[in-house]
Amino acid sequence: MPADWICEDCEQENPGHEVECIACTAPRPAASPYAGYKVARVVSVEAIPKTKLRALVVEVEEGTTVTIVTNARVDAGETRHIVVATIGSIVRIDGEEVEVKKATVGGRRSEGMLVDAPMLGWKGGAAGAAVFLPESYPIGSEPPPSRP
Asked: Start and end of every RanBP2-type domain (predicted)?
């Protein structure tokens, strides 16, 4: 069942199945193409022995961290923010929409994935390369619609 939503016009909370507001009949807002994508801060990076994988602990909201296992190059001490897709979000990989789910990768639990420029629809940037943003982008916010 779709998640409940709040009307942008009158702030009425509406059941997820409603396509218009039950109070003012305003249409349900379209979902953001970046729903579930968040600007995150790298807290720590740990190499997983005998693999090319890294386990990243990232802060996705103030005080909330998740572990993401990746083969993308992210080094400890990075001062920039990255973009991640959280559990339940939809990413586009090779033209196919894929839901991000909890998984075990390299023997470690992974609770999301790093997002690359093609997943964001940005011009330039390699597939599989993490998207870095300046620290001016707040942790937990949606990524910008184009490369800064």
From this structure: 1-30
Q: Are 67 and 60 contacting, i.e. CB atoms less than 8 angstroms apart?
A: no
- What is the pTM (predicted TM-score) of this model? 0.77
Q: What is the pLDDT of residues 115-132, one digit of tens each?
A: 999 999 888 778 888 999
Residue 13 domain-assigned (yes or no): yes
Separation CA 142–CA 3 (nearest Å): 18
Considering the domain architecture, whether residues 4 and 56 belong to the same structural domain is answered as: no
Do 86 and 60 lie in one domain? The reply is yes
Mean pLDDT of the residues in the chain: 89
> Which pLDDT does position 77 carry in this prediction?
63
Alpha helices in 86-132, H assignment, sequence order: 117-120
